[in-house]
Amino acid sequence: MNLSKLKSLSGDASFRKFYRYNNTIIVVSKKETRKNLLIYDAVNKILIKNKIKAPKLISQNYKSRNIQIEDFGNISVYLAIKKNNKKKFIYYKKIIKLLNLVQKIKTKRTKTFLGSIYKVPKYSKKILLNEAKLFLDWYVPKKIKKKNQNLLKKKLVLVLKSLINKIKFSNQTFVHRDFHISNLMIKNKKLCLIDSQEAVFGNIAYDLASLIDDVRLKTSKRFKQDIFEEYIKTNKKMHIENFKNDFEILSVLRNLKIIGIFTRLSFRDKKHNYLKLIPYAWKLIEQRTEKNKKFIELKTILDKYFSQKKRIKYEN
């Protein structure tokens, strides 16, 4: 198959490229091939086994670093909401139902298309910390004078470790890890889940934090609270205070990570369009840390080193 003759689709933040071919999608990944092709399909198999719509594998040419998968079309929930904002809450209620299904998954192993066994990893404290440190590795050097960077990094690492140690729930829940409305497609009026290669067994609050505090769609505090309460209504046995604690911590950690990743995408990969989302990621961090005792140390450090001017300004 000559991919150069196919029209490429808009890509994502990974190293993958996508092409539409005879009502299917060709996924090409020259870098991180194992994660983006082999593991992606393995996780999709787990989702499909658990009655969740995810792209089925049609064929694979792993040696040439591409796979052929089911095509769910072009309409994501994000695009559907942009077209008709009045249906936003209806869509989110459906998403909460889907999230509850995802969180019921117990399957930890599956066979890959190469015959090997893939085991879904755990979302350890070390991984959480390393992800949050992407903020230190990529964003801090772009915004802070070199002489002040080491002290800031040391302070932030200590505070981040302290926050991670305050998390209550253990890593027992299937976590998509990038659960937001751009990764939810609509086909035949049903929700379909894509971009699942980062899935782990982790904290039950993580995917809800990804959904509610999503940098791609600005929503009001009231709407965020409504969706949070909608989730709680469907999980009545939940220890609400512990869940809220973990939700807030994971939201802040995730958005620090996102600021780091979006900076890296611009600086390393020349994908500059993600920079415009950084100011809203800061806004989400501000909302969660404001008047919240567990974030006093973090807020003090961030306020000292990152002025509002630095937070709203983005450049490549």
Description:
The protein has 12 helices and 11 strands. By secondary structure, it is of the alpha+beta class. The strands form 4 sheets. It has a 5-stranded antiparallel β-sheet with strand order 1-2-3-5-4. Strand 1 and strand 2 form a beta hairpin. The radius of gyration is 20 Å and the shape is globular. The two termini are 36 Å apart.
Classify the helix fraction into a percent range: 40-55%
Number of strands: 11
Counting DSSP H or I runs of 4 or more residues, the number of helices is 12
Biggest β-sheet, characterized? 5 strands, antiparallel
Low-confidence stretches: none
Rg calc: 20 Å
Strand content: 5-15%
| Overall mean pLDDT | 94
Order of helices and strands: EEEHEEHHEEHHHEEEEHHHHHH
**Net shape:** globular
The SS-based structural class is alpha+beta
List the keywords:
316 residues; alpha+beta; 48% helix; 11 strands
What's the helix and strand layout?
Elements: E1 8-9, E2 16-21, E3 24-29, H1 33-49, E4 57-61, E5 66-70, H2 77-83, H3 88-102, E6 109-111, E7 117-119, H4 125-132, H5 134-143, H6 146-165, E8 173-175, E9 184-187, E10 190-193, E11 200-202, H7 206-212, H8 221-233, H9 240-267, H10 278-289, H11 296-305, H12 308-312
Antiparallel strand pairs: 1-2, 2-3, 3-5, 4-5, 6-7, 8-11, 9-10
